[in-house]
Amino acid sequence: MRHGKKFNHLGRKTAHRKSMLANMACSLIEHKRINTTVAKAKALKQFVEPLVTKSKEDTTHNRRIVFSKLRNKYAVAELFRDVAPKVGDRPGGYTRIIKLGNRLGDNADMAMIELVDYNELYNAGKPAKKKSTRRGRSKKPSAAPVAPATETTSSEEE
After folding, report:
1. Contacts of 123 (CB under 8 A, 6+ apart)
2. Which is more confidently placed, 142 or 77?
3. I need a surface site. Which of 1, 94, 131, 151 has the fewest CB within 10 A?
4. DSSP bridge pairs for 102
């Protein structure tokens, strides 16, 4: 019986599946988005998200854990150097799966999986957050006029 075993085996033996997911994860880290089938994209999401979480804290132990899964030192370096600082404030959900339709040859459901912070179209509102922080800095000099406004509210209360 297979109670509690929800992992998709993708029609492959364990070694083949682990190698395939490691290769796909390295490609995802290197290219920031890849096209694959929906089932593989969902399996890859479960595989790569814990690795990105590990990369947020740059220690030798975490690098070794990630390297044991990815087996590519260039991908590990890219993950810790470029990807981790970009997703440092995000609590999870580092990847996005966008369905693309069916493949012509065998009618398989295709999807694009990408790292969330690297898509310019979906992150069009993200620079607005940076502008809001700039507004916050510009409010500091205008904090002095706020004090008289509180005095006027206190005079209104009287």
Report:
1. 117
2. 77
3. 1
4. 109
